[in-house]
Amino acid sequence: MSTIYKLEAIEDYIFCGLYYRYKHELDLPYKPISANEIFVEAMKDAVFIIANEWGLKRKHPRAFISDAAEAFKEKFSEISVNCRETDRLVELYAQGLISINTVLDYINITKDVVALFNYPIYTKCNDSFIESKLDLMVIRNDKNRSKREYEFVSFIDDKTYKYIQNYDNLKVGLARNFIEDIDLKLEYPCNHRYMSYFGHPRLANKLSKRYLNIALQILENAISMIEAQVYLPNSSKAKCNSCPFNKICDQRFVIKDLPDSWVDSIRKELNEY
Ligand code: SF4
């Protein structure tokens, strides 16, 4: 049977092989230390509430905006205990609440419909499949019902990992690949937009087939390395500074068969932070 890899896990591998091992194979306690990462995680919860309550439950914006703001605040406080970037945290906390409160700039609550969110899509990659997500599909009824348009949306965290060229676009690329495949079978015209959690909407119209092929090649290479159990640490100081495992990270964890006592001891250490 083919193995299914989650895109988020492969992206973590591309960030750093050792990081992937700590997080996905050894399943170590994970508490983010980067303010940007905390912001994105909290915004994911808020977006989930907005899409669910607006799309499925058809609640009034007043209700879903306040629920989303509550979810954002709760997650933000829960996961920010290890972060020392106090100024940045304050700024992002405010920015998140402003973004949530201005969500009606993006949607027309009386006409638009959320048709899907967090929809899993699968891309074949050698003998495996990569699972990624279509974050949102909105049906625009702006003109009249006979002129509907489908708008697919991918959310990206373009500041957290901005130093990795094209990194964010792996998710956008797979979504675009999928949408292009189904485009001609859809009843209404569609477009694909990617939006940053930091509130800078952009049309994702620059992705070329060539880039998609490069993205698939990057993913294919990462899967081959994961299957060969190669866990190379990255060599970037900037990445290590924003990594929650930096206090326990040790190159000896690259070896294939780790003694249980080593893993128990780093788990204990991380739980104590
Ligand atoms: S501290 Fe650096 S090398 Fe170690 S897991 Fe984190 S990013 Fe990788």
Descriptors for this entry?
binds iron/sulfur cluster, 2 domains, 9 helices, alpha/beta, globular, single chain, 273 residues, six-stranded mixed β-sheet
Describe the protein.
This protein has 273 residues and is α/β, with parallel strands linked by helices. The protein has two domains: 1-26 and 111-261, no CATH class; 31-105, no CATH class. The chain contains nine helices and six strands, in the order βαααααβββαββααα. Strands 1, 2, 3, 4, 5 and 6 form a six-stranded mixed β-sheet that branches. Helix 3 (35-56) packs antiparallel against helix 4 and helix 3 (35-56) runs parallel beside helix 5 (86-101). It is globular. Iron/sulfur cluster is lined by residues 16, 18-19, 22, 233-234, 239-240, 243, 245-246, 249.
- Are there runs of 5+ residues with pLDDT below 50, and where? 160-167
Mean pLDDT: 85
Terminal CA distance reads: 40 Å
Structure summary, number of beta strands: 6
Radius of gyration: 20 Å
How many discrete structural domains? 2
Q: What would you call the structural class?
A: alpha/beta
Q: What is the helix content? A: 40-55%
| Biggest sheet character | 6 strands, mixed
